[in-house]
Design brief:
With about 70 residues, the chain is mainly beta. The termini are far apart.
């Protein structure tokens, strides 16, 4: 079965390193999307464009991206 990946982007209440306001977390599923696991990987980003760039680099060929959860207020 193909590994599924989804990303969760959240806005932080306080910046990391003074200017990184967004946290991107990578979740993976190996059972068709029934169970999702946080992989312990991700990145703190300065803006939503940086989040999009990071997500684009984190998509291996054998993985299907099923979604990205964006913060309600950015």
């Amino acid at each position: 079965m193909k590994t599924l990946t989804k990303f969760c982007v959240s806005k932080l209440s306080l910046p990391v390193d003074g200017n990184r306001w967004f946290n991107v977390q990578v979740f993976r599923s190996v059972d068709g999307g029934r169970t999702w696991w946080y992989c312990g990987t991700g990145r703190h980003c300065t803006d939503l464009d940086a989040c999009r760039q990071y997500i684009a680099t984190q998509t291996p060929r054998e993985t299907a991206v099923v979604g990205v959860e964006w913060p309600e207020t950015a």
